[in-house]
Design goal:
Largest sheet: 8 strands, mixed
Number of helices: 9
Order of helices and strands: EEEHEHEHEHHHHEHEH
Strand order of the largest sheet: 1-2-4-3-5-6-7-8
Structural class: alpha/beta
């Protein structure tokens, strides 16, 4: 596929099934006919940052992008549980690969923040994923479960989820994060990843410190790239353009 800018794109709302629930999302794709590489973009918690600018720019560069919402998130049916994000991500990949305009052998994953939990788990299991980009990833869940972190931050989790996530509760957040820290912590799954992986982090990220991301990166045993954006915060709020450019340059090489 020629990675030169497409002349125009199509944006359409979609729905697919996951565990008997309708999950909603949006696809950004080139308007011209053909088979294209594609990415699934997995949002963090609660999902305010959806990376629609990245999805749009990807489509202009010949890469289809799917943004979807987990069970119970942003109008998708079901109940939101952090421990259930990976099955929804797996079904999003399956749905994307089923579309006639997608090259099923060239599908990648993108995550932001807590979205790294399902992405890393899927990458550790599914060797058919072509490439991946982790943006400000939560790489060690034990960082969030150590000491009094949960006591201090769970009220913020609950407040930020209002009107966005269905079925969320303080006990559920505590239970899910503690379970993931013990069984599916990304830092413990990293050596199982064979997919080319890009990490993009901000030097001023006060949610996921760059040092934790670097520990994860150093343990990666596959093709990889580290990109620290000086001055960037957790959402790359004032550094969106350089972040997008870094991700697209990575995909040009790996997808």
């Amino acid at each position: 596929m020629n990675m030169a800018n497409a002349l125009s794109i199509v944006v359409e709302n979609i729905t697919f099934q996951s565990d008997g629930h309708d999950l909603h999302g949006r696809i950004y794709r080139p308007a011209s006919e053909g088979q294209y590489p594609a990415i699934v973009i997995c949002h963090g918690y609660p999902g305010d940052i959806k990376n629609m600018d990245l999805a749009e720019e990807s489509a202009f560069h010949g890469i289809v992008a799917l943004i979807f919402y987990y069970q119970g998130a942003w109008g998708s049916k079901g109940v939101y549980r952090i421990i259930n994000l990976e099955p929804s991500t797996k079904d999003a990949v399956k749905y994307l690969k089923s579309l006639t305009y997608i090259d099923p052998k060239r599908v990648g994953l993108v995550s932001h923040s807590l979205g790294s939990i399902p992405v890393v788990k899927l990458l550790s299991r599914d060797k058919t994923i072509k490439t991946s980009a982790l943006l400000a990833p939560l790489t060690d869940v034990s960082f969030w479960t150590f000491g009094d972190w949960l006591d201090i931050n769970v009220p913020h989790f609950i407040e930020s989820a209002k009107g966005k996530l269905e079925g969320i509760s303080s006990n559920q957040i505590r239970e899910d994060l503690n379970k993931i820290a013990l069984s599916d912590n990304p830092i413990n799954l990293v050596t199982q990843i064979k997919t080319p992986t890009l990490l993009v982090v901000g030097s001023e990220d006060d949610v996921v410190p760059a040092e934790l991301c670097r520990l994860f990166y150093d343990k990666l045993q596959n093709t990889k790239k580290w990109q620290l954006i000086d001055g960037a915060d957790h959402t790359f709020s004032e550094h969106r353009l350089p972040m997008i450019r870094i991700v697209l340059d990575w995909f040009k090489l790996t997808i």
